[in-house]
Amino acid sequence: MIKPETGAPEAAQRPMRADARRNYDRLLVAARDAFTAYGADASLDDIARNAGVGNATLYRHFPSREALLDAVFRDRVQTLCAQAEELLGRESPHDALVTWLRALVVHVTTYRGLAAWLMSTATGQEQSPASCQELIRAAGKSLLVRAQQSGAVRPDIGTSQLLRFTHAIALATEETPGEADQLLSLVMDGLRMRTAPPPAFSPSDPSAG
């Protein structure tokens, strides 16, 4: 069972005055447009300007770029989590995991630069349990563990490693999204549980190249 979301951005938890809510919503719209057009490194100054507010207002609602990205992507991440929950009931644990990873790649490649940002922060400081990255990690872990328990995926791969593979695929195919599915298939083939050791390499084998 995927652990449900336990929190939300601080600004969204506190009751807001009507004018503060309008500013918050305008910032989200401007940020979503900017991240779509310019990627995860879009200028925060430009986002504030396009929302019609000052920088101080932006940082009052979103203390960091990560907080703003979390708020912008939260709806989509919650959809991914709900999809993972549904896929837990699928007959084939391997197919369920692959289906969800495909959806994750599509989500990450929607915003240019998001894959690079996710990879750069994946090994950084511990995230809040309610952060988008932790929600994705929890969803992916539930599907990965089920696939491993079924014998479909080798047991020596962790959730963080699998997500790094997925983010790397998204990064490599930002300009050629049609190649993402093939790369994901290659990665998943390498993660399958092997019932027999691979054949020994023979220098005399003409197919060895």
TrEMBL record:
Coiled coil: none annotated. Keywords: DNA-binding, Transcription, Transcription regulation. Residues 21-80 form the HTH tetR-type domain. InterPro entries: Homeodomain-like_sf (IPR009057), HTH-type_TetR-like_transc_reg (IPR050109), HTH_TetR (IPR001647), Tet_transcr_reg_TetR-rel_C_sf (IPR036271), TetR_SbtR-like_C (IPR049445). GO terms for molecular function: DNA-binding transcription factor activity; transcription cis-regulatory region binding. The keyword Transcription applies. Residues 43-62 bind DNA. This is TetR family transcriptional regulator. It comes from Actinoallomurus iriomotensis.
